[in-house]
Amino acid sequence: MAAGGYSKAVIDSVHLDIADLEGLGTEARDAAALGFTATACIHPSQVAIVRENYAPTVEEIASARALLVAAEGQHGVFSFEGRMVDGPILRHAECVVERAGLREG
Asked: Model-level pTM?
């Protein structure tokens, strides 16, 4: 989180068991949830699994986009769909939309 606060990329370590794609997926999902930027791969078969698990879901993308539209013209903290929204929440939504290219592209 500290690195992310300074806009620095944080890369998770490799998953050494090349054949364990399920375990890799679990680790990649966890790393993405913790704020890592990427997970290093040691074999081409790992790339698609990592990309899939870092990409936000269609629902997460839609929610983030709706939040950013609602934030237009707002100043400071505001409420959206019954939840408080502040700077860190908006930054998270922006990151989700940026990562949307992984799922959409």
From this structure: 0.71
